[in-house]
Amino acid sequence: MEDLLYESMDATQAADALDAYLAEREAALLQLRAALTDHGLNPGEMLDGSVYSISPLWVWITARAAELGVDPRTLAEDPTRPTWPSWARHGRLVDPHPPASTIALIDGFASYLADVLTAQVPEAAWQVGHHRIADYPMLHYPVLAADSHEIFLPAMPLYSAYQSAHGRDPMSGTEMLAHVRRTITALRGEGPAATTAEDPAVTVVAEVGCFDVGLRADIAEHHPEVVEQMIHELCDRDGVESVHRYGPAALVVDAPEWDQTRLKLWATMWLQRHLPR
Q1: 167 φ, ψ to 5°?
Q2: Measured between alpha carbons, how far apart are the two ends of the chain, in Å?
Q3: CA atoms of 58 and 10, how far apart (whole Å)
Q4: Do residues 93 and 75 lie in contact, with contact meaning Cβ atoms separated by under 8 Å?
């Protein structure tokens, strides 16, 4: 399949992309096991299927991502790109990007995470991401879903790997474990993550020369300090010239080098990591 972005696909293309993603899972997990073995670790111990195993595994992957850094080539010039997993080719990566070795580790982690989640929530099933709101960040992505919750498994690991590769603060093993536990709770139809699933945390509209960003009302009302922290960190990102908060849940972002999808995904992933549960 041509490397269309997920959000640009039609229904048939998205269904084919889901099939391609699922067909890659076994090989990705085998590759992760091989990487662990190559670095003197026991895959049987590291990948024991427990929820608790997520933390030490993620600590190791984070350390490797920091060591590997970023690829010196642009996305357009990187000759390894055709060998990447389909989700990385159809997803929204930006430069400077992690190298193929880091992307492979994230791919294997996503496969293992799927095994852990489906063991905890047997009713979870794979489907094409959809929503009544067209601005949904996971539209047409391959997602694991149950109740009203959907999750694109590589998203948060990829976000954190970018943090590691760029020398910023990545998710710790404890944070990743907490993220997985929240995901299990949401897939079971319990907790705040499930009750707010119908409303995306972030909406982004491209205006002339800027982006209009709206946050879900409960985020601005109950966590104004988190919004301020997000604004501070967004201002520090390459290509972002200014962020103006003109209302409790409304921002204007001047980022000429970004596009609507990149901003939407960055803000969504950032909030998923930092909002208290």
Answers
A1: 75, 15
A2: 39
A3: 34
A4: yes
Q: How far is CA 222 from CA 226, 234, 270, in A?
A: 9, 20, 17
Which helix (H) or strand (E) segment holds residue 144: the answer is strand 142-146
Note the pLDDT tens digit of each residue in 182-237: 999 989 988 654 444 457 788 888 888 899 999 988 998 899 999 999 999 999 88
Structural tokens at position 182:
């929240």
Tell me if 239 sits within 8 A of 246, measured CB to CB. no
Integer Rg of the chain from CA: 18
Specify whether the CB–CB gap between 269 and 138 falls below 8 A. Answer: no
Q: What is the pTM of this model?
A: 0.82
Alpha carbon separation from 80 to 72, 74, 102, 162, 166 (Å, rounded): 12, 11, 12, 18, 20
Distance CA 121, CA 15 (A): 23
* Contact status, residue 59 vs residue 173, Cβ threshold 8 Å: yes
Residue 198 token pair: 């119908």
